[in-house]
Specification:
alpha/beta, Spore Coat Polysaccharide Biosynthesis Protein SpsA, Chain A, 3 domains, 9-stranded mixed β-sheet, 6-stranded mixed β-sheet, 22 helices, 24 strands, globular
Length: 735
C-alpha cells in the first residue's frame, strides 16, 4: 500500500514538472523565434530589444520606425500579397520617392510592402521620415521599413536576401497567400498581378518568375540539367505552401549549402533541394516578368507599349522619370483599356502605334516610301501579336493548320492628311498541320493595309509634368547671342529682351541673357553695362578681344556655354532674331516637358524669315506673318534650345569655322547621329522671326559653302509673286 501511494505521488510530481516546463517554454516562445536567425549569432536578426517581446494586438508594427501609421494597424489580419523589396540606404534616396509616387499608390489593403535594409547607416535619414509623413494619406496598404541586424550593405546581397526570407517565414507564413521578392529598381503592375495571382491556388507549392540557368560568360551555378532558378531582379513569387516548407531550411542553406555569390541562384537552390520544385519555365514568363538587357532604358523606345502592357514587373528602371512615365501609362490604360492592334486584310482600316516621329513634307510624304529600318522592331512585335491572334483563332475553329512563326519582308508608308499614317506591309508566315500525318508545311505571303490616325477622336492622350520645381535654376531658359561689328542689330536684340522680359517682374526670374561680344574699336559696351547695373541677375556680358580671336560664331557660342552648369537650359539665338514673350515661354515649357519624359531633348524651332524689300515696299508691320512678307525656314538650324550636358555629349559647337554658316548644320547632324538616344524636336514658332540682312558670301572660298550661302541669299530676296510682278512692271523680259 505505501509503495502504491509513493508511485501515485511520483506520477503527480512528473505531471507537475512537465506542466511548468511547458509554461516556461511557451512564455519564451517569441524570444526563441526572434533569436532564430540565419547566422551563428544568437542575437535577433532585427533591431529589436534584447529582452523578450510579448506581441500584443498592435505592438508588432511599433517596432518599425518608418511605417504608414494609418494602414499598419492589425498584425493578425490576413494578407493576400506581401511584397519584399531589397534595398539599401544609399539607393533609397533615388528609389524610395519613385516607389512612393508610382506603383505604391496602386496597392490595396490586401497587400503589405516591406523594404529591407542593412542595420547601420552613417548618413542622415530625415528624407525617409518626411516621405512617410507626407505620403501616409495617399497609401492604402501597410508599408514599412525593416533594418536587418548584423546585415551590411554589400553586393550581391546574399545575407540580406536570406535574412529577409527568414523574417517573412517567421511573421507571415500563416498570414499571407503570396510572397513577392523584388529589387528596388523594379516597377510592379499591381492590378494585373493581383488579378493573375487570384486565378492560382496559393496552397500549392509554387516558385514563379523568369527562369534562368546562369550566364554563359560566368562559371557554372551547379544546377541540375533542365532545372531553373527564378531571376531576382524581375521578381520572385513564392506561394504560402512554398514559404512554409522552405522556412525551416533557410539556416542550413545559408550556412552550409551556398555555392555561388548570387542570392537569387542560392534561394533557388535551397527551394530545389528542400521543397523539390524549381522555377516555372513557361513560354511567357519573360514577358510577364520582364528584364531589359540594355544598353538603353528609355520609355517608349526600349520599354515599348507592347512590352509594358503585358508585363507584371519591369526591371531595371533607371531613374525616377521612367517610374513616373510607367505609372502614367498604366493609369491611362486603366481608364481606357489599351487595345492591341489586330491586323486585317486590305481595305479594312486598322490602327497601330509607333513611337517614331516624322516631319511632314507635302511633296515627299504623299507618295509611298520604303519603311525606315528603325520601324522594323515595332513591326516585328506587331507581327508576333498577329500570329498569336491567328493561332487562337484557328484553334477555336478546330483548324488542322497552325502558324509557327512569321517575319516582316518589306513595306511602304505615306502620310494622308485626311487619315494619318498609312502603311502597306508584307509578311511571310510559316504554317503546318497539327492533326494530319504525315505533317505538311507551307509558306504564306500576306499583304496588310494599316492606318494610324493622328488623333483618336474619342480620346486624346495627355502626359503630365509632375514633381518638378519650376523655380529651380536649372529650369531657367538662358538666351545666348554672339555678335560682332553689328552694334545696331545687337541693341535691337537687347531692347527686345528688355521690353518682353525685363519689364515683366514675374517672367524676369525665368529667363537670362548672355551676350558674347567680339570687340573692335567701336563699342556699345557702356550701354550694355548700364542695363547690367539695373538687372545684374538677368544679363551677362562676355567680351572677346578680336585682336586675339577672329570672329567665329561657333567659337563664341561654345565659349558662352562654358559659363553654365551641367543641367541648365540654353537657347542659342541669332542676333537678327526678334521674339515675343510668348515664344520664349513656349520654348521653356516645351523643354521642361520634353526633358520630363526624355533624358535628352534638343529643339530646333522653325522660324519665320522676312524677305528683303528689293522687289516690293509694303507697309506691313514687322510682326506680321504673311505669305508675301517672308517664309518659314525649314532648313535653318542656327536657333536651338538644349541642355548644357546634351551639348557636351556631342562635343559642343564647331569652333574652327571662320566663314558663313555650316556650324549649325553640323550640330544638327551630330544630334541626328545619336537620335536613338536624344529626341530631336522641330515645330513652327511664329513668335520667332528673322530680320533680313544681306549675307557676306563673296569672301567664302570653299565652293560648296559659297553655293549654300548664295542659295540662302536668293531664297529671301522676295516671294515668287513679287518677283514676277517686278519683272513685268520693269519690263525686264523682252517680247
Amino acid at each position: 500500500m505505501p509503495r502504491r501511494a509513493f508511485t501515485r505521488w511520483n506520477h503527480c510530481l512528473f505531471i507537475l514538472f512537465f506542466f511548468f516546463l511547458g509554461f516556461f517554454l511557451g512564455l519564451h516562445y517569441w524570444e526563441f523565434i526572434l533569436r532564430n536567425d540565419c547566422s551563428s549569432s544568437s542575437s535577433s536578426f532585427l533591431s529589436f530589444p534584447s529582452k523578450p517581446i510579448m506581441i500584443k494586438s498592435n505592438s508588432f508594427y511599433n517596432h518599425f520606425q518608418y511605417r504608414t501609421f494609418q494602414t499598419c494597424q492589425n498584425h493578425t489580419s490576413n494578407i493576400f500579397l506581401t511584397i519584399a523589396v531589397l534595398s539599401s540606404h544609399e539607393r533609397l534616396i533615388e528609389y524610395l520617392p519613385a516607389i512612393f509616387e508610382t506603383w505604391l499608390l496602386t496597392s490595396t489593403i490586401e497587400i503589405e510592402i516591406i523594404i529591407f535594409l542593412e542595420e547601420k547607416y552613417l548618413g542622415r535619414e530625415e528624407f525617409i521620415e518626411k516621405l512617410f509623413f507626407k505620403s501616409n494619406k495617399y497609401i492604402q496598404s501597410c508599408f514599412f521599413i525593416v533594418k536587418l541586424k548584423y546585415v551590411e550593405n554589400e553586393y550581391p546581397p546574399q545575407k540580406k536576401s536570406f535574412y529577409a526570407m527568414k523574417f517573412l517565414y517567421t511573421y507571415y507564413r500563416h498570414r499571407t497567400s503570396w510572397i513577392l521578392r523584388l529589387d528596388d529598381n523594379a516597377y510592379v503592375n499591381i492590378p494585373d498581378l493581383i488579378k493573375w495571382l487570384k486565378s492560382i491556388d496559393h496552397k500549392r507549392a509554387l516558385y514563379i518568375g523568369q527562369g534562368g540557368t546562369g550566364r554563359k560568360s560566368e562559371s557554372t551555378i551547379y544546377f541540375p540539367p533542365k532545372k531553373y532558378f527564378c531571376m531576382g531582379g524581375s521578381g520572385v513569387i513564392l506561394s504560402q505552401k512554398t514559404l512554409i516548407q522552405l522556412g525551416p531550411w533557410l539556416d542550413q542553406c545559408f550556412k552550409s549549402e551556398l555555392r555561388t555569390n548570387h542570392e537569387d541562384v542560392e534561394l533557388g537552390r535551397c527551394i530545389l533541394i528542400h521543397v523539390h520544385i524549381d522555377c516555372t519555365n513557361a513560354y511567357n514568363s519573360k514577358v510577364l516578368f520582364y528584364h531589359h538587357y540594355g544598353p538603353h532604358y528609355l520609355f517608349g523606345i526600349d520599354f515599348t507599349t507592347s512590352i509594358i502592357s503585358r508585363a507584371f514587373i519591369l526591371h531595371p528602371i533607371q531613374n525616377r522619370t521612367i517610374f513616373q512615365q510607367l505609372f502614367n501609362f498604366y493609369r491611362r490604360q486603366q481608364q481606357k483599356k489599351f487595345q492591341l492592334s489586330i491586323w486585317k486584310l486590305s481595305n479594312r482600316e486598322n490602327y497601330i502605334t509607333f513611337f517614331n516621329t516624322m516631319e511632314f513634307d507635302l511633296v515627299r510624304d504623299i507618295h509611298y516610301q520604303l519603311i525606315d529600318a528603325r520601324w522594323k522592331t515595332y513591326i516585328n512585335i506587331t507581327v508576333q501579336s498577329y500570329i498569336e491572334h491567328l493561332q487562337k483563332l484557328w484553334h477555336q475553329r478546330s483548324s488542322n493548320w497552325t502558324v509557327i512563326n512569321g517575319k516582316f519582308l518589306l513595306g511602304y508608308h505615306r502620310i494622308i492628311p485626311r487619315y494619318g499614317l498609312e502603311l502597306i506591309v508584307e509578311v511571310l508566315l510559316n504554317a503546318r498541320t497539327v492533326s494530319m500525318f504525315p505533317s505538311r508545311s507551307t509558306v504564306i505571303r500576306k499583304r496588310f493595309h494599316i492606318r494610324q490616325s493622328f488623333v483618336n477622336k474619342y480620346h486624346i492622350d495627355s502626359r503630365e509634368i509632375t514633381n518638378i520645381d519650376l523655380n529651380k535654376k536649372e529650369y531657367q531658359l538662358n538666351l545666348i547671342v554672339v555678335s560682332n561689328n553689328r552694334d545696331k542689330t545687337l541693341l535691337r536684340f537687347i531692347h527686345n529682351f528688355q521690353y518682353e522680359i525685363l519689364n515683366d517682374s514675374y517672367q524676369q526670374q525665368y529667363f537670362t541673357l548672355t551676350i558674347l561680344y567680339f570687340q573692335q574699336n567701336n563699342s556699345i559696351i557702356d550701354q550694355i553695362n548700364q542695363l547690367i547695373v539695373r538687372y545684374p541677375l538677368s544679363i551677362r556680358l562676355i567680351i572677346i578681344n578680336e585682336t586675339q580671336h577672329i570672329y567665329n560664331r561657333g567659337l563664341g557660342r561654345q565659349l558662352a556655354s562654358e559659363y553654365f552648369s551641367h543641367n541648365q537650359l540654353l537657347f542659342f539665338l541669332d542676333v537678327d532674331i526678334i521674339f515675343t514673350k510668348q515664344s520664349l515661354i513656349n520654348t521653356r515649357r516645351l523643354m521642361i516637358h520634353q526633358l520630363s519624359i526624355s533624358s535628352c531633348t534638343v529643339y530646333f524651332p522653325i522660324i519665320y524669315s522676312f524677305f528683303s524689300h528689293m522687289f516690293v515696299n509694303n507697309n506691313h508691320s514687322i510682326i506680321d506673318v504673311r505669305t508675301d512678307s517672308g517664309l518659314f525656314s525649314i532648313y535653318g538650324f542656327g536657333n536651338v534650345a538644349l541642355r548644357k550636358r546634351d551639348l557636351d555629349r556631342i562635343g559642343g559647337w564647331e569652333i574652327n569655322n571662320y566663314h558663313w554658316g555650316n556650324e549649325d548644320v553640323n550640330l544638327f547632324q551630330q544630334f541626328v547621329n545619336i537620335s536613338t538616344e536624344c529626341y530631336i524636336f522641330r515645330a513652327v514658332e511664329p513668335g520667332l522671326k528673322h530680320v533680313y540682312h544681306k549675307k557676306m558670301c563673296n569672301d567664302i572660298k570653299e565652293e560648296l559653302l559659297f553655293k549654300m550661302c548664295h542659295a540662302a541669299e536668293i531664297n529671301l530676296l522676295g516671294s515668287q509673286a513679287d518677283m514676277i510682278d517686278y519683272i513685268f512692271d520693269n519690263k525686264i523680259l523682252n517680247d
